[in-house]
Amino acid sequence: MAKRNTKETILFESLKLFADKGYDGVTVRDIAAEVGIKQSSLYKHYKSKQEIFDTLVDTMQSRFRDSQFRKMLSIEKYKNEEIDRIYREVYIDTAISYQARLFEEMIKQGFMRQASPEVMALQFFSPIFLLLNKYDGIAEKEKEAKEILGKHIEQFDMIYRKEAI
Questions:
Q1: Cβ pair 77, 83 in contact under 8 A
Q2: What angle (nearest 5°) sits at the alpha carbon of residue 96, between those of residues 87 and 36?
Q3: Do 57 and 82 lie in a common domain?
Q4: Count of domains in the chain?
Q5: 117 to each of 5, 108, 109, how far by Cα in Å?
Q6: Does one domain contain both 49 and 14?
Q7: Are 145 and 163 part of one and the same domain?
Q8: Which of 44, 77, 129, 142 could pair covalently with 84 via S-S, beta carbons 3.0-4.6 A apart?
Q9: Burial 23-50 (b: 16+ CB within 10 A, else e)
Q10: Cβ contact 132:85 at 8 Å
Q11: What is the DSSP letter of 23?
Q12: What CATH number is associated with residue 50?
């Protein structure tokens, strides 16, 4: 039987908990319980909840930066149903569901107008996904891509930000 990688399990379970309850709604004790270890054991792997969160962010950012992996999945997804499932899960479903939960919370807290969080996530993420594919591997176009991305975010903000009362 393969030995469980506790450090990775902590990240995986933390991500699920943060997605369900938000960062502030989760304690180190919650994470340890979900992993099935003592809280003191969790601290052998990570010094704090913040370090777990930061590691998750770094991990997700490196996934999106790893264009070779995405390219491989993009090509192979047409040949293999399991690879297609992985591609959709990693690069589409996870991103959209994360954004939808984020927008839902921003609506609840009064930062954004009342709207469908799922549709907002699609409207926000779709141009980003398109830009990622359009400019992937074209280093000399990076500045152009960042400018367009910035304009997209500004326009999205103008549409959905709730005006102060």
A1: yes
A2: 80
A3: no
A4: 2
A5: 35, 11, 13
A6: yes
A7: yes
A8: 77
A9: eeebebebbbebbebeeeebeebbeebe
A10: no
A11: G
A12: 1.10.10.60
80 CA to centre of own chain:
24
CA nearest 31: which of 47, 15, 44? Answer: 15
For residue range 142-165, list pLDDT tens digits in order: 899 989 999 999 999 999 998 765
Tokens of 50: 């913040």
Q: How many Å apart are CA 97 and CA 18, to the nearest integer? A: 13
Label residue 124 exposed, middle or buried (CB < 10 Å: 0-12, 13-18, 19+).
buried
| Same domain as 71, residue 59 | no
- Among candidate residues 105, 66, 70, 108, the one with its CA nearest the CA of residue 86: 70
Tokens 């994360």 found at = 98
Domain of residue 44 covers 1-64
- Tell which of 64, 95, 115 closes a domain: 64
pLDDT of amino acid 67:
66
- Give me the half-sphere count of Cα atoms (radius 13 Å) on the Cβ side of residue 86: 16
What is the dihedral sign for C-alpha 98, 79, 70, 11?
positive
pLDDT at 1 over 50: no
Residue that finishes a domain, picked among 64, 85, 105: 64
Beta bridge partners of 112: 161
